[in-house]
Amino acid sequence: MSDLPKWRTDFPILWGADNYISRREFAKYLALVSGATALGNGWFVLQKSRSSPSDYPSQEVATVDEIPIGGVKLFRYPSQNDPALLIRLAEDQYVAYKQRCTHLTCPVHFAKESSRLVCPCHNGAFDAATGEVLQGPPPRPLPKIVLRIEEGRILAVGVTG
Predict the structure, then answer these.
(1) What range does the domain containing 146 cover?
(2) Domain count, the chain
(3) Rounded CA gap, 45 and 53, in Å?
(4) Window from 50-59, 73-82, 94-103 with minimum mean pLDDT
(5) Interatomic CA distance for residues 73 and 30, integer angstroms
(6) Checking DSSP bridges between strand 83-90 and strand 153-160, what pairing results, if any?
(7) Are residues 38 and 69 in the same domain?
(8) Are residues 89 and 27 both part of a single domain?
(9) Which of 99, 109, 40, 45 has its CA nearest to residue 75?
(10) Which residues are bridge partners to 96 per DSSP?
(11) In the chain, at which end, N or C, are there fewer CB atoms within 10 A of the end residue's CB?
(12) CB atoms within 10 A of CB 124
């Protein structure tokens, strides 16, 4: 039999060969990574705050007579990769939102009877008039598309939120 304790034969680690990291080194590494993460996120926030509605193209979405009250029209704005929906809430009230839920980007749909935009993935709901979260896991309101009506045409001219 060997003079070594059983745990030493089960875990034959030589302490001299072990890579020891002091608390100070770990704290320094943690501070560097945290600082880099904060700077990276700050850059994204700065880029988002720099964009203004003038950065978006003006695009005709529909005519004022095309959609009935309570009706919806799907379109893409500001690019072909961005699904959106236009809703006519009243005679002269139109709203448009990006169609992706702010939780996990599932498509939202308009529920006319409750005047809500619902996300079927996780039972999220948004107010159709404001885009604010009414229930579920979405962390923020839907991005609203800025509309302008000119000569009977509804134009998308920007995105807020």
Answers:
(1) 53-160
(2) 2
(3) 16
(4) 50-59
(5) 49
(6) unpaired
(7) no
(8) no
(9) 99
(10) 86
(11) N
(12) 24
> Using an 8 Å Cβ cutoff, are 111 and 119 in contact?
no
Q: Which helix (H) or strand (E) holds 43?
A: helix 23-50
64: its two tokens? 């004022």
Q: From CA 44, how far away is CA 37, in angstroms rounded?
A: 11
Q: Are residues 137 and 156 in the same domain?
A: yes
Q: Give the pair of three-digit tokens for residue 21.
A: 């990291």
pLDDT in tens, 13-35: 666 656 677 889 889 999 999 99
For residues 46 and 65, membership in a common domain is answered with: no
> Which long-range contacts (C-beta less than 8 Å, at least 24 apart) are formed by 72-80?
72/110, 74/99, 75/156, 77/145, 77/156, 77/159, 78/156, 78/159
Q: Give dist(CA 82, CA 71) in Å, integer.
A: 20
152 and 73 within one domain: yes
pLDDT at 109 over 90: yes
Q: Which residue has the tokens 């072909």?
A: 80
pTM strictly above 0.85: no
Cα separation, 12 vs 9, whole angstroms: 5
- Tell me whether residue 1 is in a domain: no
Residue 85 near residue 74 (C-beta atoms within 8 A): yes
The neighbour count for residue 23, using CB atoms within 10 Å, is: 7
